[in-house]
Amino acid sequence: MGYGVAFLAGVGAAVLLGASDPYAGLDVFARVLSDVDAHYEVELPLLQLVHAALDGVPAVLDEHSDYFPPEEWSRIRREDAGLSVGIGVAGAPEACGLRVQAVEAWSPAERAGIAPGDCLQGIDAASLPGPLSTTVTFTLVHGDARREMVLLRGFSAPPAVTVSPLGKDLWYARVRQLNEAVAAPLAAALPARPAPKGLVIDLRNNPGGRVEEAASLVDRFVRSGTIVTTQVRGEADQKVDATAHASDWAFPVVVLVNGETASAAEIVAGALQDFKRAELVGTPTWGKGSVLRFFQYEDGSALKLTVGRYRLPSGRSLSARVGLQPDVLVELPPGARVDDRAPLVERLAADAQLAAAVARLQSH
User: CA torsion 18→19→22→24, rounded to 10°?
Assistant: First the structure.
């Protein structure tokens, strides 16, 4: 961090002194590196000093920007690639094979109907992890029944969207993230006849995802206007406009939000609020309207940098940590956690925000 301070101080001094070249401070940086290289009591690799200096750069940037030295960036890429995933079971060897002790929620094993107590034959625990989307072949023994199975290794993650009836032609859509298709699965799950009388879109704890998917979801509810504008320094503004379709939805919508609703999820909520197509119920959102880009370098390091902002239909931007304000403020008790796998009937009794959203729909 000390080298980073020296680097930033050098650049800052050049600017404050009115230097014609704003990068004149790099000369100070080079001299510091040269003195450390020549006179420090032990010899250090120059590249190590450079990375130590660059580690200090994010200190003057926003909270979303960061610098990753080669080792850290390589680790992040390995984790993101999912180089070692399984089918979502934990087990122990027994006479019957690998006895299943636990099954992860939303895992390939759970989707296949594997349950604790089952036995997997023809495979051991060490061979369960492997590359993403490769196959695991075994015999499933459930009581007296035997079944040959082939499962794909994958992440234990819930689907991007699940849709459930709320009764009286009202529907509930839990949208967990926007990295995958959401608009199309939602359209496929909602009935055409009878048409819904209202929809709750639950964006609580949704960290965001693809702006294109956010805009695609909003487009199903509006027929004209600019959904989102991307403003990047040095580039022309990029706008996504709504398109009118006969299949666009006209029924009332309430969107659930909280402090963990962020990024592309805030674009959905904010655009629907600006177009007056939905009321927001819950608590203020995160406030992350930044456009991020990654820059990768020859030495294996990388920079994550905020390069611009998203603007909502009204022109407002989600500034850092100042999110959307709900139309109806409803707080949950401190520490309350809503089980999003519990039946909706049970959740309505325990989830004040969901109950308030349903009440808003019923008032239309």
Answer: -140
Burial class (CB in 10 A: 0-12, 13-18, 19+), 281: buried
> Which CA distances in Å does 333 have to 150, 258, 330, 338, 351?
44, 13, 10, 11, 10
Q: What is the pTM of this model?
A: 0.81
The dihedral sign for the CA sequence 225, 227, 230, 235: negative
Are 147 and 165 found together in one domain?
no
Render pLDDT for 104-151 as a digit per residue (tens, 0 to 9): 988 999 999 999 999 999 998 888 988 888 999 999 999 889 999 999
**CA 28 – CA 5 distance, rounded (Å):** 12
Extended beta strands in 249-364, E state: 253-257, 278-282, 290-296, 302-311, 328-329
For residue 69, is it within any domain?
Answer: no
Residue 96 domain boundaries? 89-152
- Give me the DSSP letters along 183-217: HHHHHHHS-SSSPPSEEEEE-TT---B-HHHHHHH
Same domain, 112 and 246: no
Tell me the C-alpha distance between 2 and 5, whole Å: 5
Return the SS3 of 268.
helix
